[in-house]
Amino acid sequence: MRSITSPANPSIKRISQLRKPARQRRENLLLAEGTREITRALAASLNPETLLVADDLPPDAIPAIPDDRIITLPRPLLAKLTYHDEPEGLLATFERPHWPESTLKNARRILVAVATAKPGNLGAMARTAAALGYDAILAAGDTVDPFNPNAIRTSTGAVFALPILTMDVPAALDFLRNTATSRQTVAAEVQAATDYRAIAYTTPLTLIIGPEDTGLTPPWLAAVDDAQGIRALIPMNPLPGTSVDSLNAATAAALIMAESTRT
User: Fold this and answer.
1) Which sequence ranges form a coiled-coil region, renumbered to this chain (predicted)?
2) b/e sequence 216-232, b meaning 16+ C-beta within 10 Å
3) Would you state the pLDDT for residue 11?
């Protein structure tokens, strides 16, 4: 364990740079803040690189990480590196987990999140997927980083343990076509004719949720139809006078995931 007091220290400057998503991806690292996130990252067997600890924290508040990876520093200096408004005094860097594509082949239930732009939505989907026993998420297209701090926080750390694989759209569409005969495919669509509660869900299952602003585009819907999949409608009864015409993507995913695991 060593102590640093200067913001000009190279270690502090490097971690400050890791607040930039591109730098995190380049170094294959993520930032976890606070007791819950750090302990869940450790429980998921992620490899800790560095743990920053406010120098006023009691020893029993420090997670079990080898001493040579721990740096203590004044709380005001640590606060400049954290994301939370009221930091607990713990910030850690971990190696990012990676999963092979074979994870998808062996998964009973997969959530495909298409072009999810908001970290909170992806994090909420991951939390619900993990809670309901989904085996993996396929983040397709221009999707937010699953290790964005807001995604980590909203997922309550589920993104550390739940396999989340990223693919560009052509590769993801190929996956749907190549697994058409071995997996049931269900896609949420606002113009669908089949109520999601009326579907006889089976496994292996691939559930597809599109971006909440546009929904699934024609290529995705065509791939669903080619796979003899089911377009699923979530009926709504909007309050009169409101302009609500769709659900939040994470909410839509949660409803169908919950229904799909009841049978």
Assistant:
1) none
2) beeebbebbeebebbbb
3) 94
CA separation for the pair 256, 247 (Å, rounded) = 12
Handedness of CA 216, 219, 221, 227 (dihedral sign): negative
Return the closest-CA partner of residue 11 out of 49, 40, 38, 63.
49
Largest CA distance in the chain: 63
Boundaries of domain holding 162 = 102-260
* Same domain assignment for residues 182 and 245: yes
Q: What CATH number does the domain containing 252 carry?
A: 3.40.1280.10
Mean pLDDT computed over every residue of the chain: 95
Domain stops at, among 35, 60, 95: 95
Band of residue 242 on the pLDDT scale cut at 50, 70, 90? confident
Q: Is the CB of residue 160 less than 8 Å from the CB of residue 47? A: no
Residue 62 pLDDT > 70, yes or no? yes
Q: With bands split at pLDDT 50, 70 and 90, how would you rate the model's confidence at 263?
A: low
**Helices 249-260 & 119-131, crossing angle to 10 degrees?**
10
Contact 161, 99 (CB under 8 A): no
End-to-end CA distance of the chain: 52
| The total number of residues written for the chain in this structure | 263
Assign residue 88 the CATH number of its domain: 3.30.1330.30
